[in-house]
Amino acid sequence: MKQDDENSKKVVQLPNKDAFANKQLDIFQSFYANTDEQRSDASNSIELWDSVPRYSISQQSMNKMRDDKGRLDLLEIPFNYRQTSLKAIIQPALIQEEKNGVKSTISYYPSANEELIEEALRKIATIQQMGFHEPMKRSGVVFTLYQLREELRQRGHTRSFNEIIKSLTILSSSIIEINGEDKQRNKSYGKRSAYFPAVTWVNQADLSEDPNAKWHVQFHPLVTDSIDKLTFRQFNYQQLMSHTTQLARWLHKYLVTKYTMASKMKPFEMRYSTIKRDSAMLSGYKVERQAIAACDFSMEELKTQKIAHEIKRHTVTGARNKIIDVVYTITPTLDFIAEVKAANARQGQLKSQ
Length: 353
Fold this sequence. Notes:
There is one protein chain. By secondary structure, the protein is an alpha+beta fold. Helices cover 41% and strands 27% of the residues. The protein has 15 helices and 15 strands. It has helices at 6-11, 23-28, 36-40, 47-51, 59-65, 112-124, 145-154, 161-173, 204-209, 221-229, 237-242, 246-258, 272-279, 288-304, 334-352; strands at 42-45, 75-81, 84-91, 93-99, 102-108, 131-134, 138-143, 175-182, 187-194, 198-200, 215-218, 233-236, 268-271, 308-317, 323-332. It has a 4-stranded antiparallel β-sheet with strand order 2-3-8-9. The protein has a 4-stranded antiparallel β-sheet with strand order 6-7-11-10. A 3-stranded antiparallel β-sheet has the order 13-15-14. A hairpin with a 2-residue loop joins strand 2 (75-81) and strand 3 (84-91).
């Protein structure tokens, strides 16, 4: 990132003080919880935005996909949202890097590192005077790099300052288009934006003048839209950040969004084919059984993190005993049920407000 580019910094109009204190933002920053610890561990999921497989390509896959000049093509990922077929088209970021004194431009899709950065920033945005929201216009967060680094460290994902800056550059330079058609309603959908449409950074000169100088990040328009319409949903952010695999985080968010009536009496059913299609994280395996094993492993993490009490696994086979699909039946823990009830109670408050 060219942090000394003053012209780029002047493009962004910083939010005024009213953006840091308004009703919509106050609701976004308030959680339904019995203890301070539960409140500090809570954050918000954004239903449509978090359903988009926008961080699905691993660093290893990217290395294989680049051409001899380090470039990546546009990436198209089909997925389903509420029984509607959509497509995400991702334009990679171009990052200038230097190795052994030689500069080169390398393409990057946002991946797991950037996912963690966004989750941490959305959590920081729930702190008073950190998050901002201008109704029907934009939302975002102000922070210091140290604050963001500490948030990641405390949640088990330590990153260097350079790694954080690189991720922020990728998020502000990558463009994502989401489009599709709802044939039943005869409607089309389309939205195109950077993951972070605007970033104002702090360079060394700024820090020498003001040690507490803050970065500003503007969230994707779908996040702003969710705050406007109060469609965000409370969930256990600490649990999410404790997963060891990216797919486990995806499964967790899927349950948060879909399993809104969690009960011991009504287990939740997920299919491997659905997970593969909508997460877009299992297509890189050469053998289907390896992808299924990776899915099994991430499913077990739901038990480790006390989200699932029991997971029953049923393999659907076809001719010559070929695996056609795997059906997972998830029975939730009492802790997860309690969290869903808290999220539902908060949703009830949102509707009344």
